Amino acid sequence: MKSALYETANGIVGDIGELQTIPFFLTPNDPEDTILLPNPGTVRGPLAMSAPKDGPLLIRAIHANDVAQDVFAEFEIQDGSETRKLCNAPIYLRTILGQYALPYMLPQYLYLAEGNVIYINVQAIGAMSTALRLNFECVKMMRKQLDKTGRLALDRIKRRSILSMPFFATFQNGYLDLGALGTGSAQIQIPNEGSFIARKISYYSTGAFTLNITNQATKDSMILAPRETTYELPAADIIGTNGQPLDLVEPWHIGAGQKLIIDATDTSNASNRIYLTVSGEFVRTGDMR
Amino acid sequence: MNPNLLVGNSIQNTFRYTGGNGEVSPKIQQGLPLWMSPRYIDFPQPINMPATTTKIITWTNQSFNAQAPTISVFDRLVMNNNGIDNPTWRFFDNQTGRFLSNWGVPTPLIFGQTGRSYMMPEPIIMDANTDVQATLDPNFQTGELNRYPYFHGRQYYYNNARRARLLERKRYISPFWLLPEIDITLTANQTVKYTVKVAQGHFRGLQLQLYGGSAFTLRITDVLRRQEISNTAIVHGGLAANAETVGRYPRWLACPYLLPQGSVLTFELTNLAATENQVGVALAGQMLYCPLKEVQSMLKDLAKPFTFEVGAAD
User: Fold this and answer.
1) Which residue, of A88, A242, B106, B312, has the greatest Cβ tally within 10 A?
2) What ipTM score was computed for the predicted complex, to two decimals?
3) What is the pLDDT of residues B195-209, one digit of tens each?
């Protein structure tokens, strides 16, 4: 089998590994590449971000010019005739947007085949004019120039993407409200169709708080403590925000249909709204066809 | 590809020093941190940068001991006052005879502060008693200035093996900034297109640097390969208050962008604001000086870490 060759105007020069890929920025198809959300409650979508037709994309990071987005968003990927959600519930974007030299690195590459589409549904929350300028940082594989190694790698990536993909998990109702010095609890429900391997945690809140995260089924907790005692640690000390989430040193496996329980206590002495996103890898099991 | 492999970090600099009585020390780092100032008469006063004329300043890696020549590796440029109200810089390496950019580079794209450095995609390597010059052009200055620009990196000595390895790297790779134009000021809602040819060698882009007072969009197209690097356009939000600070926090590209010599790029910029917008755009990376088919093996070879021992026999 002949491998892909690079041909200049002066003739063929042979395989050049790095010519098989180019950096690529996947942006919304919106005319000005900006999702306009002028009023609180504005809902837009589904907005499409279409992959080019001459090579698949490996999406590695999310970037926005303004990370102070008071917006919820849901992501779906259309893969042929199938649509797969990339989140269990609308994600508060402030928890997953990076900026400039610190984009939010996805926990694993998201494979987007030629011509496939990522759809975004967004809803503005805040009382401010919001223009969302979002893009994904990608590697575009030049299919016609892939050599044997590149084709094998792409094949492995594609097969893996059938079984697993990056996934964002958050509260079912979007946020957890705490009263001044109050306590509260919220759940993150993992879909029944597969397991979730958590790798990153990030949050946004209107005030300081402490928290603990526990797997309801196994009673495993983020914080090492005797199981009969509940401890909480300051969120600002143990998990990150925006493009600098906490990278778990060990992935945390959450089984299909299980729940993460987030127990939190406000320490700001004021009413406090907490958004939290756990990102990782969703491994399909239940819906294999 | 980990960009850090190509910013000098792959050059391990551990070796043993053999003392006068024969004992061998634990492996220690022989590089010394170094801030190198340009040579000029008024030192330690700041360098005067005129408002209306160009000026050439020179950095020299002086080495006073012919038996122990130094070699310096600079991966950061430092100037504490590094906003847009500064000259543009076009560096020229006298040893290799190469320019390090196709246009003068605006200060915010290459200068950081000591506590907030800009890491160049490829270090400037200076052999003993060689010069790097900069032509300062007052494109964005609003008046006469006085500044302290420095090269910041490390200096090595007493090791010919390291020196040879670094000079080999310098022979094949230079840092390079590829800019569409020296001074881009967009009028309200204006769209302009610039065409740039990669002529000096093969350009390997590693960073995309952008700044602007207001929002603008950018489309980069490789004309010969008919490839764009975005499906629509890349938007830069623009931060009026911090317009110059964001350029030195570049976006590392998801993979290196290799543009063989002769490639033609177009940069299409559209001002999204209804007011004038001063913007800066650069692809920062490496210029490779070798046949295209040897690029991969050359990069792989130069990225290999190496260690060596120094003693009386060196």
Assistant:
1) B106
2) 0.84
3) 999 999 999 999 998
